[in-house]
């Protein structure tokens, strides 16, 4: 494996752990795709640093288990905003 890929995988894992970041947030921060983030953490990092991979994986698993809640809150905010804009234009 190339050196820069190994370094990126370690940097990604450290960011996920420190920032409690999601795959999407991490991908945006590093300018790479979500699938690359996932592959770096689940496959590549396991070969490089298994203990770091486990820590990052725990954070991603928690985020995955909570994503339906975050999605529901985002949808609620969206429609609350639309309702408020509609009310203000009526009056």
Description:
This protein has 91 residues and is an all-alpha fold. It has one domain (3-66). It is 89% helix and 0% strand. The chain has 4 helices and no strands. Helix 1 packs across helix 3 (34-48) and helix 1 crosses helix 4 (50-90). The model has no long low-confidence stretch (mean pLDDT 87).
Defining key terms:
single chain, 91 residues, mainly alpha, elongated, DNA binding, DNA-binding
Compact overview of the structure:
By secondary structure, the protein is an all-alpha fold. 89% of the residues lie in helices and 0% in strands.
Instruction: Give me the count of strands.
Output: 0
Cα-atom radius of gyration? 18 Å
Bulk shape: elongated
Structural class: mainly alpha
Q: Report the average pLDDT across residues.
A: 87
User: How would you spell out the order of helices and strands?
Assistant: HHHH
Number of helices: 4
> Low-confidence spans: pLDDT under 50, at least 5 residues?
none
Number of domains: 1
Sheet with the most strands? none
Question: What percent of residues are in strands?
Answer: under 5%
- What is the share of helical residues? over 70%
